[in-house]
Fold this protein.
Amino acid sequence: MPFPLHVPQETKIVKKQLFILILFISCYTKTKKPDYDFMNQIKQQAALDSTLKTQVELKPAKYFFGTKKNTERLSGFFYIKNVGNHIFNPISIQSNCDCIAVHYMSKAIMPNDSLKVTYEVAIKTRTGFISHSIVAIGNCQYGNQTFYLEGTIFDK
């Protein structure tokens, strides 16, 4: 008499989880096209993760602009200072909001050197409290550093 084939319960669970994951991925990619720019940044970050990391500081790391009329201009700057021992190669410096234009000269930052990043926020159609960030991605601690911008905008 042949032995009955016994499949462990863990194997069944893993197979079910794998099937659900494949189904989810196939449905997700059919409904939403992949963001190739974002994937390219992830690939570049992964390459940097395997190289030497450095330490950077944002000066200031946060800016509270207080209260502004939405007819005023809201712009400013911050510095990314390389306080580590290796060259900092920024891959991307961008905001979480398309209402913020970020400008900088793309360059590697040598140890003990800084990069000035300027920004301008479109506030004409905004009112109330805002909180946004600008993220610098590169070969630094945690793979990124974030500058925060907060304040209140009121109508003319």
Observations:
- Strands lie at 56-59, 62-69, 74-82, 90-95, 100-103, 114-121, 128-138, 144-154.
- The longest strand covers residues 128-138.
- DSSP finds two helices and eight strands in the chain.
- The CA atoms of residues 133 and 148 lie 4 Å apart.
